[in-house]
Amino acid sequence: MVGGLNLKLRGTHPDVGITLTSADDGRTVFIPPTEVMPNEPKTLYFILPPEVTPGLWTLRVSTQYRSRNRLTQTPRTDEQPVQVLPEE
């Protein structure tokens, strides 16, 4: 889950979605908006694909959503480091 403001994944730009980049080897995994449910302005829920292994990753959320269903011309992007823990 990712929480914040105006996060809803909307727009037609190919970068719209969630990208995870491994700090260890630079691998990237893209999660398209169709795999994010619910996809709400304040909350995004998604399942990590099996390629996302335990370790440090950079999570990048890109959207053209602004507010009240208005869109920007180019995607807005926010990044933050995340630690993926092994399953228990």
Secondary structure tally: strands: 6
The gross shape turns out to be globular
Low-confidence segments, given as residue ranges, are none
Tally the helices. Answer: 0
Radius of gyration over all CA atoms, rounded: 13 Å
Output the strand order for the largest sheet. Answer: 3-2-5-6
- Structural class assignment: mainly beta
Strand content: over 45%
List the helices and strands and how they pair.
Layout: E1 2-3, E2 17-22, E3 28-31, E4 43-44, E5 55-67, E6 70-84
Antiparallel strand pairs: 1-4, 2-3, 2-5, 5-6
Give a structural overview.
The protein has no helices and six strands. The chain starts with a strand and ends with a strand. Strands 3-2-5-6 form a four-stranded antiparallel sheet, with no helix packed on it. A two-stranded antiparallel sheet has the order 1-4. The chain is globular. It is mostly beta strands and 88 residues long. Helix content is 0%, strand content 48%.
List its salient traits.
88 residues, mainly beta, 4-stranded antiparallel sheet, two-stranded antiparallel sheet, 6 strands, globular
Summarize the structure.
By secondary structure, the protein is mostly beta strands. About 0% of the residues lie in helices and about 50% in strands.
